[in-house]
Amino acid sequence: MKRDSMLRLFRLCATRLVLVALLATGPLVAQDNDAPDVETLAEILGAEDAASVTVARVDEGVPGWTLRQGDAVLGHVGSTWEIAESVGYSGRPLEVLVGIGPDAIITGAQLIRHNEPVLTLGISDADISAYVSGFAGYDLRQAGRDDDGLPKIISRATVSTGVIRDSILRTARTLAFGRGLIQAEAGIDRLSWHDASWDDLVAMGALSEVRLSMTDAARALDGAKVAIPQGDGDFLHLWAGLADPPTVGQNLLGQQGYTAAIGALDPGEAVLIVMSRGLYSHRGTAWRRDGVFNRLTIRQGDNSHTPRAEDFNLVTRLRIEGAPELKEISLFKLPASFDPLEPLTVEVRASRPAEDGGDVATTLSTEYLLPESLRTAPPPEPEPLWRSAWRESVVHIVVVALMLIVLFAVVLAQEWLVRRASLYRVFRLSFLAVTLVVLGWGLGGQLSVVQVIAFLHSLLDGFRWETFLIEPVIFMLWSFVALGLLFWGRGIYCGWLCPFGALQELTNAAAQKLGVKQVAVPSALHERLWILKYTAFVGLVALSFYSMEKALVMAEVEPFKTAISMRFVRAWPFVLFVLAVLGAGLFIERFYCRYLCPLGAGLAIPAKLKIFDWLHRRPQCGRECRLCETKCTVGAIDNVGRINPNECVLCLRCQVMINDATTCPVLKRRQRSAA
Question: The whole model's pTM is what?
Fold first, then answer.
């Protein structure tokens, strides 16, 4: 029953939060911008005279704009929002116009709209514009092979600039495929041509060859009514291959013959050239009566094809240098059911009437596979940005993983640790120091309410794992926090892994060591001040649905960016705010965590769902003794000894106290009674 009540409470809170956001704000998704003007499109493509440029909107297939100067195509422009549906780390649309020339080279890019945190505060628009324009000159045909032409990710804006990079490349590639500038799949190279002789084609595998001598035919057709004379001459000498590549077809047939052969093909079809000499004909004469070339069969796996008269074109002579004297030259259309990139077999069945009636027969076959040099290979897909980010952050990942493993072990075996007060104190301060210096200042592992807002928007506008995987450290922390909320509540992060929380506790510990007197906030006032952080959280979420930019500005109520991400290197008003918060924390331990932190408020809502209650209390707590209440790090214990899971940061201080016989009044009394 208790769990059902908690679930109902959580659903009610979540529902009200979304309703407040929907009723108090504007539309959930950004409205499409007006179509860009000609000057903007021409500038992206590098056109000097915009007045002579004509623009045609393309809505079929890959949407975008095609620009022409006279009869010549100047290039194509596409929107990352239209084509790739690019969503920034803020969870809102991110739109960049990308231009590509007829040579599949990016001519320019221009940032149109965004709601990214780092673009609003901390990094100038000029930095981002320079980053976006840095994609000009990148050859999409070399994508994945050479990333030296790409601009470097901006420090302190890894996620947002990474999303911009990924959306620009995906949009440019899709646009190039859609306009036929690069081929999306491997296939026959129908564009490249170089002069080649007969021997060159045979050597490169463009023509397969098989020969049956008169002696071999006599043995294979033994028993024929009319015996085949033996000798070294050709019974059948056969060559076969695809004539589609210009290097093959144009050299064999000449320009006019090649154009006529290829021009008659329907989509998906290919043309096979079969050439032979010798006593036996690969065509025969029966096809003139029944329209079927019964002697010839083309096989590919379980698929077989016997050419018909309508598939046939006669060639009288070849135009290539060095060709042998041939008796028959045939062109046969291959149906679309045949894959020209897979091996195929050309078979010719030779038969003779037998002496005892019936026929004796043999089959001559040759295997053919289109050479790699006559294929087009698509440029490899560029590696997703999140994969490269994880590969390049192996050291960071290992460090964070070790911290999480240690913390997981500690909270599971907390009874062992809390019974050793001195060891606990040393471990606690040491872990917080690592959290601040290594995780926070070193690796930038500071979570923020901005990420919570981005996650909520991504659920509404289209969730993409790739967006959140770009920053490995942040992703690992959020994954651990999500698991920790079920087991321990919000305290697993706020009490151990929050760098700014660690900074507050360490500075307060130093202040107490120096004798700074702590201020005890009256219980009634203490609980009413909690309203501030919950109001801040709900207000930021609601504001983000109206204006993400304004919400990000108001998110500066978090001092995390100034104190941790930027290490106090910032304008003086921001630094002054952080110093004021830390100053208050010298007298009231974790002052910011208690009353102002919207992230803590956001984590406290799902904390109601935690499955286990790891923290122990005595029946005497809150009645006979209120020591834990006065010593609690964040004032999460009420005057009757209950621990409020919404406020608890799992510091384990109360657990140390109730297990310390020199501190806990209950244990002291038991010792006296035992004595």
Answer: 0.63
